[in-house]
């Protein structure tokens, strides 16, 4: 550890920042963000003595104590104008945040680029000699797909596809995702369409089945491949001209596995390998109006691209892996040796290989089917054939978009990988099969994750409101004659009401509660006690003409959809706590039974996170459905929480909840720290060792025993997980921070 104090100048101010070098550069950037409001991903930190860019952790050990902070987005700040005039600094100011490099790195980059260009020239020269004669091989590979994608335009196929999708459910998920992750409760149509597409991808992953070897048609036991058979007329009708045969290991029965190419048939069978998956998913994309392309990788994989109006470009989607917008997945994650990646759509055929590689000079050496010029000419002719019946103005628009795409592919080809993002090996298919295809990558422990997280905002005020409302409900039960068992029965009945509301259409949620005529207090009679909770859920109760009581939407359906899962879990937590109580009284209305004054709406930064579902804010969303997962946190990871601007509080207690699975990843040792200067310096509030969560979704409460201080930021430093020998990961189902009531 090296403790240092830096004097950081920004605009017209200078800040003294205490720093522990063990924390790393990311924590230092978070401290500066707390002081200057310049987000970490927009910061450029320059040494005041020699204008050296601070680019990694080691720089903070040796550099001068005087630093200057500049925002990448503010290229014409007073600091920039009044700097030493060094041309290198001025040039670096206009570089993108992803490509800030020192002079030495720039020189190395130039040398590397020269080597790559030379390798490309050599590969092109060699291609003239080794490329096969034009025997139609490329056309044989591509032409069938040109006809296949036209099936996606059949209105009958599209209607059949839409009928199999729970559209309202996916719309709800999309709107909740926008609200939860971005605080966006009024998204534009473009934002809604983009997020719906992602939900469609995740749903498809769960609804379609991967086939290694099909189970026996007779007894359901495992089978083994016996080669191929002759296709039957009915199989040929649906494009199943290739049929694999499998013998049952138990009863010796032969099971047929036709490899259907017709997406209408795949809507029925809902199984296959990557060809069937991409074929069917691309039909779904077209059925919902997305401009889509089937992507053919000649090293034997298939996926989808959709044009994203949200991004203004084509977006990669792999339905087998449920991964999107990560085109380097195959080269970097799977370790594939790509050669040709061809996009096939109803209005054109395109060579998009350059989107999927940063090693073009290596790929070029493997492109030996035909020469680049012949390939380009062939694809241009195919595209003209696809567009021959289109209106001139539409052709002009498509040609303009083609030019933009080509420019973007060339520009991005020279960009560097995002080293902070880890891409997994192939996850779909049998392990040995993946290894045999050299697609296993770094193994199953490598997942889509990020070691350089952005600052994320918590959209969780509804969680605090629900916890407070549950306290009101319990305080009212204290004044009744109900026993603990009676209160539990009422809470379970109310949970059933919440579950029925969750199942009802999210835009028109409404259920009726019947009076059971029971002389004992029933949930019907006690519903008024839940008014505060209903209000927190944006629901209301009304008396119907029949005399029955109805619970229905009171406001924005998205806010209700966001809050309902939290309320269901909160009721479960209270029931579990009551099970341990002999009686309920005012003396029992404290943690863990009652959770008041929960801190909310802050910002979060973490040492790493799993994408897209294990992000840092998942620890604060109040549900069991999600978790924060740190892929490399088993031997150390951290998560920091900063209060809303201008807020301070004294921390009274906190709770941690175990996640849904893998107890080995549970935190065991940790230190909780506070800060009164928004993260510039830290002090210890609590320290725990050898903690063990016995159950999944188990909550553990901890009181701050030391003399707490007014703080505006908190940080958990997790030092070890339950079994670091069996996992590299840290995961937490939930974190709740409780302020002392003033």
Automatic annotation (TrEMBL):
Record key words, sorted: Metal-binding, Zinc
SUPFAM superfamilies, per database record: Cysteine proteinases, Ubiquitin-like
A GO molecular function held by the record: metal ion binding
Domain Transglutaminase-like: 266-321
Pfam families (alphabetical): Transglut_core
Alphabetized InterPro entries for the sequence: Papain-like_cys_pep_sf, Transglutaminase-like, Ubiquitin-like_domsf
Protein name, as recorded: Transglutaminase-like domain-containing protein
Family: Belongs to the transglutaminase-like superfamily. PNGase family.
Organism this protein belongs to: Opuntia streptacantha (Prickly pear cactus)
């Amino acid at each position: 550890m090296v403790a240092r104090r830096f004097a950081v100048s920004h605009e017209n101010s200078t800040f003294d920042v205490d720093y522990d070098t063990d924390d790393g550069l990311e924590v230092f950037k978070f401290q500066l963000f707390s002081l200057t409001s310049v987000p970490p991903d927009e910061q450029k930190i320059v040494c005041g003595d020699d204008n050296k860019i601070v680019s990694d952790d080691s720089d903070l050990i040796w550099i001068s104590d005087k630093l200057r902070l500049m925002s990448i987005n503010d290229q014409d700040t007073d600091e920039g104008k009044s700097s030493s005039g060094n041309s290198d600094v001025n040039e670096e100011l206009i570089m993108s945040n992803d490509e800030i490099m020192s002079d030495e790195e720039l020189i190395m980059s130039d040398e590397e680029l020269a080597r790559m260009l030379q390798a490309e020239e050599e590969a092109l020269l060699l291609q003239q000699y080794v490329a096969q004669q034009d025997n139609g091989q490329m056309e044989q590979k591509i032409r069938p797909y040109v006809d296949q994608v036209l099936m996606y335009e059949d209105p009958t196929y599209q209607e059949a596809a839409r009928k199999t999708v729970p559209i309202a459910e996916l719309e709800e998920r999309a709107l909740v995702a926008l609200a939860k992750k971005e605080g966006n409760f009024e998204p534009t149509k473009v934002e809604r369409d983009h997020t719906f597409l992602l939900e469609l991808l995740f749903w498809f992953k769960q609804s379609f089945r991967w086939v290694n070897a099909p189970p026996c048609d007779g007894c359901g036991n495992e089978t083994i491949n016996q080669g191929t058979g002759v296709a039957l007329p009915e199989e040929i009708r649906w494009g199943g001209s290739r049929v694999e045969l499998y013998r049952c290991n138990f009863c010796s029965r032969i099971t047929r596995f036709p490899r259907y190419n017709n997406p209408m048939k795949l809507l029925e069978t809902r199984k296959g390998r990557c060809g069937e998956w991409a074929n069917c998913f691309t039909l779904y994309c077209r059925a919902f109006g997305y401009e889509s392309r089937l992507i053919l990788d000649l090293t034997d994989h298939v996926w989808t691209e959709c044009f994203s109006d949200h991004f203004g470009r084509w977006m990669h989607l792999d339905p087998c892996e449920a991964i999107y917008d990560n085109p380097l997945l195959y080269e970097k994650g799977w370790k594939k040796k790509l050669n040709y990646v061809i996009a096939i759509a109803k209005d054109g055929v395109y060579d998009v290989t350059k989107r999927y590689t940063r090693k073009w000079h290596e790929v070029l050496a493997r492109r030996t089917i035909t020469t680049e010029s012949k390939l380009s000419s062939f694809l241009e002719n195919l595209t003209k054939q696809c567009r021959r019946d289109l209106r001139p103005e539409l052709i002009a628009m498509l040609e303009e978009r083609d030019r933009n795409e080509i420019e973007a592919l060339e520009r991005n080809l020279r960009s560097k990988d995002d080293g902070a993002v880890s891409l997994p090996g192939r996850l779909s298919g049998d392990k040995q099969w993946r290894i045999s295809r050299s697609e296993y990558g770094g193994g199953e422990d490598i997942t889509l994750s990020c070691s350089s997280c952005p600052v994320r905002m918590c959209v969780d005020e509804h969680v605090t409101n629900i916890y407070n409302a549950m306290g009101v409900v319990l305080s009212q039960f204290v004044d009744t004659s109900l026993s603990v068992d009676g209160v539990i029965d009422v809470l379970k009945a109310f949970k059933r009401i919440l579950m029925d509301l969750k199942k009802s259409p999210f835009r028109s949620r409404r259920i009726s509660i019947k009076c059971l005529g029971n002389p004992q207090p029933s949930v019907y009679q006690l519903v008024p006690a839940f008014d505060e909770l209903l209000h927190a859920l944006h629901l209301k109760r009304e008396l119907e003409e029949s005399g029955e009581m109805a619970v229905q939407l009171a406001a924005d359906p998205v806010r209700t959809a966001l809050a309902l899962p939290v309320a269901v879990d909160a009721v479960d937590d209270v029931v579990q706590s009551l099970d341990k109580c002999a009686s309920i009284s005012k003396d029992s209305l404290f943690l863990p039974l009652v959770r008041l004054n929960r801190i909310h709406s802050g910002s979060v930064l973490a040492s790493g996170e799993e994408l897209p579902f294990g992000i840092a804010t998942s620890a604060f969303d109040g549900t069991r459905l999600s978790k924060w997962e740190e892929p490399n946190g088993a031997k150390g990871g951290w998560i920091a929480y900063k209060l809303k601007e201008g807020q301070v509080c004294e921390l009274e207690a906190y709770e941690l909840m175990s996640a849904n699975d893998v107890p080995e990843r549970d935190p065991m040792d940790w230190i909780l720290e506070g800060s009164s200067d928004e993260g510039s310096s830290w002090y210890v509030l609590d320290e725990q060792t050898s903690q063990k969560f016995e159950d999944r979704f188990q909550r553990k409460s901890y009181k701050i025993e030391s003399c707490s201080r007014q703080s505006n930021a908190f940080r958990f430093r997790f030092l070890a997980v339950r079994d670091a020998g069996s996992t590299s990961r840290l995961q937490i189902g939930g974190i709740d921070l409780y302020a002392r009531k003033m």
